[in-house]
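Hello Y.,

Per our agreement to keep a running log of every chain we model this quarter, I'm adding this entry. I've kept the format consistent with earlier entries: sequence first, then predicted structure.
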Amino acid sequence: QVQLVESGGGLVQAGDSLRLSCAASGRTFSSYAMGWFRQAPGKEREFVAATTYYADSVKGRFTISRDNAKNTVYLQMNSLKPEDTAVYYCAARDATHREYNYWGQGTQVTVSS
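Predicted structure for the entry above:
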């Protein structure tokens, strides 16, 4: 079992940067694959980033990283655009699952134009 808690969201202007954090509980954090997803109002949840993979819409602007010593995964978001406005979720997947099976509660990111 792992519990995920996101933080770092907020209201920013277009062009600004934000860094989201996702703190995970548990002693086996390093064994989990981690990813970031987002859901904009009226839209389905979509993939953002995981390991070296990025959605085309964020490629070159967002960077995912992790610090296993701190049980934390990060999403550095630069050059933010209004279309990046969404609730951002981190997710974890253990070795027995092909899909992400643990989710955080989400953190709101709002980018004004």
